Amino acid sequence: MNISAQEVNKLRQQTGAGMMDCKKALIEAEGNFDQAIELLRKKGQKVSASRADRVASEGAILATTNGSKGVILELNCETDFVAKNSDFLGYGEALLQAATAHNPANTEELLGLAHNGLKLSDMMLDTVGKIGEKIEIGTYQTLESEKVITYIHPGARLGVMVGFSGTDGVAIDAIGKDIAMQIAAMSPLAVDQDGIDATIVQKEIEIGKEQARQEGKPEAMLEKIAMGKLNKFYKENTLLNQDFVKDASKTVAQFLKETNPNLKITGFRRVQLGSR
Prior knowledge:
Order of helices and strands: HHHEEHHEEHEEEHHHEEHE
Largest sheet: 3 strands, antiparallel
CATH architecture of the domain at 58-190 and 265-272: 2-Layer Sandwich
Structural class: alpha+beta
Radius of gyration: 25 Å
Number of strands: 10
CATH class of the domain at 58-190 and 265-272: Alpha Beta
Number of helices: 10
Strand content: 15-25%
Shape: elongated
């Protein structure tokens, strides 16, 4: 049947699919727009299935906050070219908006939500059909606090969320960005030593003892030496004890105290592309 250029363009505007794909879908659907859209979606499903064994190691880290709640996610694709594609990033924005509005517990719940009347799992298939690459959500995390600051490092391969309390109603965007950039650069394991898992602590103590033993230190001194090494581990791997990257003469804890004595870091999330 004859399909007009106006009809093809209308379907293209509605779906974002290519002109020839839209024309073929309209011909197969005998001009029925709803059926044509479904056919294009099935094409997306076929693309997704045919690329299921492909490695989606590229992508972008995306984050947003409404002030007290933050969402950060890793959206993966196959190539860095697609990671900059407007359809790909638009889908990521839809995920963020739905996550912020509905607070899903995991990616399965997130994909079950709707955005502008379309289920996010179906929207993923549509986007796969448009870009021709596998898409998947690699990491999805949330953070709630009195104030949540987000930071995406240039290139969108690394992102951070930081939660604060004790803001005293004062804007802390600049301070929050400094702390987020500290986390991005120094990759701490926890806010302070209380946040380090006990198994990691014990492992570090045993490593410290064995190192001292290999150096020929007396057995009676091993525990003390190991604890000294553990303190060094805390300084390097806990946020508040790290040297502040913008002024190494003070720790992050000292920087916060000087800036606002009541300001506390309640938690953070650091997500790097491919780190899952």
